[in-house]
Amino acid sequence: MTDTDFGAVTENAAGALPAATDLSRVHAEIARLDAEILDAVNRRLALAQFAARTRVESGAPMVALGGETDVIRRYQDELGPRGSLLALELLRLARPPFSSTYRTR
């Protein structure tokens, strides 16, 4: 395993598991990627919420179902069947809580 190759973490070219020092580098890289993912998710949520507010203010439905279907399909195509679960969760996170979506009598 090289310093930049984290694609095959389970075994190196010789078939041995990474050494403990390699694992600490792998864990550090995972933590760095997690921070990037969280930052990207927060940016995505802000943009999706802005788009939903803009749609509602213009009289359109808050949710663009065709667009959401495209997102789910894109995640599933890239990540397989479980990708759709990730897409659905991202879409859910961007929506306001149910109680603030609809007025009650």
UniProtKB/TrEMBL annotation:
InterPro entries: Chorismate_II_sf, Chorismate_mutase_highGC-bac, CM_dom_sf, CM_II_prokaryot. Coiled coil: none annotated. One of its GO terms (biological process) is chorismate metabolic process. Residues 28-78 form the Chorismate mutase domain. Transmembrane segments: none annotated. It holds the Pfam family CM_2. GO terms for molecular function: chorismate mutase activity. This is Possible chorismate mutase. It comes from Rhodococcus jostii (strain RHA1).
